């Protein structure tokens, strides 16, 4: 995948608000596109050099400024696309970098666009992040108990061998956390903080929010 620098990143990008759909840097998000306005967004995106789309969480309630979206999202490059016979798209976005919305842009397009700032997220464009304090056996034990409590299944052999960033970010994206919780995972300043947040959310889900000691 193409390597970016902050200076390469566009100032304005199309924005796709989708509740619960979390994208993180260096992770991949498959999407099924069928609404006409977002089909147009994909067509327009393919014409750009950067091919970036900004995923964003809608707010449960509008902010004091009247904004209906969260301030921080993650942009992904459109890396895979296939079209169905009834003119729907199956796409994959590869996460590139988080961004902060500075201004929503009005225009003739049927979809949202925004001016964005990439400042503060330079680490997203670097190498795979490490979590030096990651205790894989303890984490996988907790994960197994969480999956059992939620009646979820997975390929445990692949999890045992996955790099910690891929493992933690994939779980952040795939686990059935609510949109506000996924926003907290997106905004985590480091991989270690994201892992601690995932652990807390799994513990709370199993214990109903009881104030028991949290594994870290």
TrEMBL record:
Pfam families in alphabetical order: LON_substr_bdg
EC number assigned by the record: 3.4.21.53
MF GO annotations: serine-type endopeptidase activity
Chain ranges of the Lon N-terminal domain: 13-206
Superkingdom of origin organism: Bacteria
PROSITE patterns documented for this protein: LON_N
Key words of the record: Hydrolase, Protease
GO term, biological process aspect, one: proteolysis
PANTHER family in alphabetical order: ATP-DEPENDENT PROTEASE LA (LON) DOMAIN PROTEIN
Protein name: Lon protease 2
The organism of origin for this protein: Jannaschia rubra
Gene (name only): lon2
């Amino acid at each position: 995948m193409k390597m970016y620098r902050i200076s390469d990143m566009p100032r304005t990008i199309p924005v796709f608000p989708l509740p619960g759909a979390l994208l993180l840097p260096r992770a991949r998000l498959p999407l099924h596109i069928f609404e006409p306005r977002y089909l147009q967004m994909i067509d327009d995106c393919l014409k750009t050099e950067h091919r970036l789309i900004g995923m964003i969480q809608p707010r449960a309630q509008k902010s004091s400024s009247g904004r209906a979206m969260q301030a921080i999202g993650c942009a992904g490059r459109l890396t895979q696309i296939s079209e169905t016979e009834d003119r729907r798209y199956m796409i994959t976005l590869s996460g590139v970098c988080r961004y902060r919305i500075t201004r929503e842009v009005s225009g003739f397009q049927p979809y949202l666009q925004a001016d964005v700032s990439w400042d503060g997220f330079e680490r997203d464009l670097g190498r795979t992040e490490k979590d030096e304090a990651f205790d894989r056996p303890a984490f996988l034990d907790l994960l197994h108990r969480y999956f059992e409590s939620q009646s979820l299944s997975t390929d445990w052999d692949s999890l045992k061998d996955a790099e910690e960033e891929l493992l933690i970010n994939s779980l952040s994206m795939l686990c059935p956390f609510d949109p506000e919780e996924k926003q907290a995972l997106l905004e985590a300043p480091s991989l270690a903080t994201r892992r601690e947040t995932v652990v807390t959310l799994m513990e709370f889900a199993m214990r109903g929010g009881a104030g028991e000691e949290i594994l870290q």
